[in-house]
Amino acid sequence: MLQFTNRELDLYLERFEREYLAETSPETRGTYRRALNTFRHWFARQKGEFRFRESDVERYRQYLTQTRRLADVSVSTYLTALRRFCQYLVQSGLLAENPARRVRGNRRPSEHRRRYLEPEELQRLLALIPDEGLMGKRDRALVGLMAFSGMTEIEISRALLADLERHADLWWVRTQPKGYQEKTAVVELHPRSVQLLAAFLEAWSRQQPLELHWGLIPGLGPRNRFGPINPRALRKRVEEYLKQADLAGPGRTPHSLVYTAVRIWLEDLLRQRGKPVPDAEVIEALKALVHRRMHHQTIDTTLVYLRQIGIGI
Fold first, then answer.
1. Angle value at C-alpha 202, between 261 and 211, nearest 5 degrees
2. pLDDT grade, residue 312 (50/70/90)?
3. Which helix or strand (DSSP H or E) is residue 212 part of?
4. Helices 256-273 and 299-308 meet at what angle, rounded to 10?
5. Which residues lie below 8 Å from residue 35, measured CB to CB, with a gap of 6+?
6. Residue 313 has what pLDDT?
7. At 113, is the pLDDT very low, low, confident or very high (cuts 50, 70, 90)?
8. pLDDT tens per residue, range 76-86
9. Strand-pair partners of 186
10. Which helix (H) or strand (E) holds 245?
11. Which strands form 170-175's sheet, in the order they lie side by side?
12. Where are the alpha helices (DSSP H) in the chain?
């Protein structure tokens, strides 16, 4: 049991952010800061009654759920932040055990409400995008990076021509996924992505010499001439093509293309191993592949992607 004054709590919250969160991204630090600010304000109103017991943490969970009426995913996020802070206090020798360890947040959604594209739907989408003109070839390359190689909107919007590396038929891109502070991850490009991207780069280079600081998938409008495509513009382009192909609707977003890549990787594994349906060996291989290629920080996120294509684990 531990009793803090408000000033002491503020001191350890500052140390937690400075020491425990030092290597995290600004977005992650911001999430923890907002969540722990809520705890700090609630703690002050307890007038010393919160003593870092499991029952105290449970009272805080009830406050988030019943008084604040937060969504399930928000409750889980706030409790995760408190759990990590309590673990910091354990490591600092102030607590014998983590009182928040057994207090779980409300159940998170087990899967995103998005759906992948079937092979014929992806073919229809690509056939809709003009294969003539620089804009059409760029958009086909964009869809190819997402649907075959699993690159996300944020990864594409951060990628430069300088990040593209090639060795014979093998192409890969140094990238900065969500939550990363630098371009320390690598995306291996699927052969179909390579085909579509190569067609675009060839057409582009015929018009002018390419500069390495330009975007791999560039903006071609006057406001962002050759810089990496803006995430909003990317999303708008893909959404418009989905509508034109009659593929829009509930659960169909640009991120559906990333789920589609997982389905394609599964088909590749089945073909390589000569198996008609996924067995335990193929599923384990796919899980490792998705976790590595998509740079997931937890295996739980990877399992969401597998469930999205119909593989329950």
1. 95
2. low
3. none
4. 80
5. 77, 78, 80, 81, 82
6. 57
7. very low
8. 888 988 999 99
9. 174
10. none
11. 164-167, 170-175, 185-188
12. 6-15, 26-45, 54-62, 72-91, 119-128, 134-149, 153-158, 191-207, 231-244, 256-273, 280-293, 299-308
Which residue from 157, 120, 127 is spatially nearest to 142, judged by alpha carbons?
157
Q: Determine whether 104 is exposed, middle or buried from the number of CB atoms within 10 Å of its CB (0-12, 13-18, 19+).
A: middle
Given a cut of 70, whether residue 280 has pLDDT beyond it is yes
52: amino acid identity, one letter: F
Contact assessment for residue 144 and residue 201, using Cβ atoms and an 8 Å cutoff: no
Q: Interior CA angle at 235 toward 126 and 220, to 5°?
A: 80
Question: In the numeric block, which tokens belong to residue 68?
Answer: 């604040």
Token pair recorded at residue 296: 């997931």
Structure tokens at 116: 């992948």
Q: Which amino acid is at 232?
A: R
226 dihedral zone (left: phi>0; alpha: psi -120 to 50; beta) = left
**Residue for token digits 């008609």?**
276
Measured CA to CA, the distance from residue 33 to residue 77 in angstroms comes to 11
What is the three-class DSSP state of 252? strand
The H or E element spanning position 171 is strand 170-175
Q: Are 193 and 159 a contacting pair, CB within 8 Å?
A: no
Query: What's the length of the chain?
Result: 313
Q: Set out the domains of the chain in order of their start, with CATH numbers.
A: 6-91 (1.10.150), 119-308 (1.10.443.10)
CA 123 to mean position of chain CA atoms: 25
Residue 45 CA to residue 6 CA, distance in Å, equals 10
What is the biggest distance separating any 2 CA atoms in the chain, rounded to whole angstroms? 72
Tokens of 47: 């007038």
Instruction: State CA 30 to chain mean position distance.
Output: 17
Task: Indicate the pairing of strand 164-167 with strand 170-175.
Answer: antiparallel
If we measure between CA atoms, which residue out of 192, 149, 77, 166 comes closest to residue 293? 149
3-class DSSP assignment, residue 99: coil
